[in-house]
Amino acid sequence: QAPWGDPALVPIMNSASTSGIERNLLASFENTDGSVELVYREYSGQPTNPPGQYRRLVYRRFVNGAWNDPVVMKEVLYNRAQSGSLDIVLWDVKVVKDAVGDIHIVYVERVEGDPDSSEVVYLHEANGQLVTERRITNNATDSKLPVITTAGSQVFISWLDGRSLNANTGVYTVRFLEGDGIIYPEARVNSG
After folding, report:
1. pLDDT in tens, 144-161
2. What's this model's pTM, rounded to 2 decimal places?
3. Burial level of 21, CB count in 10 A (0-12/13-18/19+)?
């Protein structure tokens, strides 16, 4: 027996995953009151389906023996095959919980086929509601590998930025955002 006890089955969706609907657990938090909070990624549809399928980041809480309604933190519509547009991908998702119980998410949003379209985005959940959605980067270079941490209720985000993969120019630098909203000057991390 593991030191943390026996595993428990927690039905998070009330239905099995089926072809065309997939879910990936990104983070789970067990609270002192016995509640459980989850953040997961959800996909609907296949590339051959009609336009309007989605990719989502979803928050749910299990309390008093029941799941709350899903809170869609971010949703992007996609369907390259039918609409002719490029798919938007939500990847490299990181999730943390601060000292007051708020959930903080950082991820990279990218248009498939264009590596320089990668941008870092921040989401903040409090009391089952999306409080903040903020695009941290918005530039013509590759922004990637975000990291998020908290100290008390203050949030800190860092990421790599500054190199154009399309033009093969520039250098990666570390960027840093403190909870007060200040983006600090970059620090170079390579020589070429």
Report:
1. 889 998 888 788 888 888
2. 0.82
3. middle
